[in-house]
Write a structure and sequence with these properties.
Blueprint lengths: L7 E3 H8 L3 H10 L5 E2 L5 E4 L2 H13 L4 H8 L10 H35 L32 E3 L6 E3 L1
Antiparallel strand pairs: 1-3, 2-3, 4-5
């Protein structure tokens, strides 16, 4: 009979420590985001360093980083050993770049909406956000004039960029 590693945690311990449901841990395991080994009694045991991975998954989700992106980044980290400081720096640099881009998009959207509302152009004849006869439905679902893929123009009544 093999001896279990000293730092191995039962699933209940991981649930209590992270606040993540056991079903979510199973899902993360199926996705390859975390790993567990089985005891001789077929019980899951998680290495203590999996808590950091789980915590980062939670933070990534809170920041709007999808699990597919987390999986891609985690694929560069060792699963069986504790990742080094250099490993975590590499992961954080990649996410920082994504978050900076998202921040720029949000700030641009905020400027456009504030400028448009503030200038009074939200009228039925001038507003660049209007969609008469639902013409934009042919371009696909969702807000077609808001966000990073929206067409932009300068409104003739002011210098702010507004949505076209």
């Amino acid at each position: 009979m093999s001896k279990e590693p000293d730092d191995a945690l039962a699933i209940g311990d991981v649930v209590r420590r992270t606040g993540v449901a056991a079903s979510a841990l199973h899902y993360y395991e199926q996705m390859g985001l975390i790993a567990a080994h089985r005891t001789s009694g077929n019980q899951r045991r998680y290495a203590r360093h999996m808590i950091r991975r789980i915590s980062l998954i939670l933070v990534a989700k809170r920041l709007g980083i999808g699990l597919a992106d987390v999986r891609e980044v985690f694929a560069t980290l060792p699963m069986e050993t504790v990742p080094t400081g250099r490993d975590w720096q590499r992961v954080s640099r990649r996410w920082r770049t994504q978050l900076e881009e998202r921040k720029r998009e949000i700030e641009q959207l905020e400027r456009e909406l504030t400028g448009c509302i503030g200038c009074g152009c939200l009228s039925m004849t001038v507003c660049g956000l209007l969609n008469p006869e639902d013409e934009l439905s042919a371009q696909g679902p969702g807000p077609r004039r808001l966000g990073p893929s929206a067409d932009r123009r300068v409104h003739p009544r002011h210098e702010l960029t507004v949505l076209q």
